């Protein structure tokens, strides 16, 4: 199965690996598909940046908690291949999510962590 734009799991994994390498300053050969993003130094701000860049790359909205729900290159690429096409026909994110994203630059890292934790605990994706 392929992701939007005809991207394969390998191509998605390559994009994710490239993003981690560029943004977190990790050599590509050090990025293993089964290692968590936190292992490479990702924090909540980086996670939100990654999701935003992925949204732009894929041309569709993604869950703000994507990097925490699917915390490795391998599981995120699997998810994007399987789930993103279905998300294209899903309803847009809630108004609350849109409001949070609109003021993301104003939030502290602690506030972002708290909001992400609340979402994870409530089972919201």
Identify the notable features of this structure and list them briefly.
125 residues; mainly alpha; Non-ribosomal Peptide Synthetase Peptidyl Carrier Protein, Chain A; 6 helices
Please, could you describe this protein's structure?
By secondary structure, the protein is an all-alpha fold. It has a single domain (4-122), classed as ACP-like (Non-ribosomal Peptide Synthetase Peptidyl Carrier Protein, Chain A, Orthogonal Bundle). It contains six helices and no strands. It has helices spanning 9-24, 44-58, 66-69, 73-87, 95-102, 109-122. The longest helix has 16 residues, at 9-24. The protein is globular and about 35 Å long. Residues 86-92 have low confidence and may be disordered.
Number of helices: 6
The profile of the biggest β sheet is:
none
CATH class: Mainly Alpha
Number of domains: 1
N-C termini distance = 22 Å
- What structural category do the secondary elements indicate? mainly alpha
Task: Give the uncertain stretches in residue-range form.
Answer: 86-92
Element-by-element helix/strand order: HHHHHH
| CATH architecture identity | Orthogonal Bundle
The average pLDDT is 81
Q: What's the number of extended β-strand segments?
A: 0
Helix content: 55-70%
The CATH homologous superfamily: ACP-like
Radius of gyration: 14 Å
Basic shape = globular
Q: Strand fraction band?
A: under 5%
CATH topology name, in short, is Non-ribosomal Peptide Synthetase Peptidyl Carrier Protein, Chain A
């Amino acid at each position: 199965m392929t992701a939007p734009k005809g991207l394969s799991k390998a191509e998605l994994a390559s994009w994710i690996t490239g993003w981690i390498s560029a943004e977190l300053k990790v050599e590509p050969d050090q990025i293993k598909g089964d290692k968590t993003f936190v292992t490479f130094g990702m924090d909540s701000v980086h996670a939100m940046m990654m999701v935003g860049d992925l949204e732009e790359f894929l041309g569709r909205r993604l869950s703000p908690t994507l990097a925490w729900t699917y915390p490795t290159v391998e599981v995120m690429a699997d998810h994007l291949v399987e789930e993103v096409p279905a998300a294209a026909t899903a309803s847009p994110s809630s108004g609350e999510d849109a409001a949070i994203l609109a003021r993301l630059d104003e939030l502290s890292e602690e506030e972002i962590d708290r909001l992400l934790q609340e979402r994870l605990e409530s089972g919201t994706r």
